[in-house]
């Protein structure tokens, strides 16, 4: 693992702990994103430079391969023609190009391997950036929710009527109950008065009937005399 990757791991490992301790998580995330964005730009430049370097190495490898094969063919032609001296010269150059081919092939393989690692790190950086950016969006939405909630709470406190609504209805319920009790009491009184009148009427009627019966009996007795 490269030093560059280790630095990124340390930063990413600490961000969650720092978020919990931060009073302004969005600002902390923005700082992290800015650093990560700079690292991405740097990594992209390295990828471009490594790619260009690899193309140059590949060109050297191809040229060395071509010249090696060409000198070997020339050596064969010289041997067929009986020109041993020319054949040896061609073979000497072939050996030089073989050495060059081996050296540049090794450099090319090393560069390709490094480029693959760098591209992998670049992809991880981009994924890390997107992940933290999404977390930033979440914290922004969360803080906006908190801000609106605080404003609603302040408005409710300023209004001052929210907590008294149940009491207000309780008092209204008590008043209505009192009115209902008074109306019921009046109805009960009227009913009692009506019953009294009816009972009084029945009593008077009974007395009159008794008096009528007494008078009739008295008349009957007088007639007999």
Word description of this protein:
The chain has 225 residues and is an all-alpha fold. It is built from 4 helices and no strands. Helix 2 packs antiparallel against helix 3.
How do you describe this structure in short?
The protein is an all-alpha fold. The chain contains four helices and no strands.
Question: What is the element layout, followed by pairings?
Answer:
Layout: H1 3-21, H2 25-80, H3 84-159, H4 165-224
Helix pairs in contact: 1-2, 2-3
Organism: Paenibacillus cookii
Pfam families: PspA_IM30 (PF04012)
Family: Belongs to the PspA/Vipp/IM30 family.
Annotation keywords:
225 residues; mainly alpha; 4 helices
Shape: rod-shaped
Quaternary structure annotation: single chain
Instruction: Please provide the ordered H/E string of secondary-structure elements.
Output: HHHH
Number of strands: 0
Number of helices: 4
Beta-strand percent range: under 5%
Average the pLDDT over all residues and give the rounded result: 78
Helix share of residues? over 70%
Low-confidence runs of at least 5 consecutive residues: none
Structural class: mainly alpha
Rg estimate, integer Å:
56 Å
* First and last CA, distance: 151 Å
The biggest sheet, with number of strands, parallel, antiparallel or mixed sense and barrel status, is: none
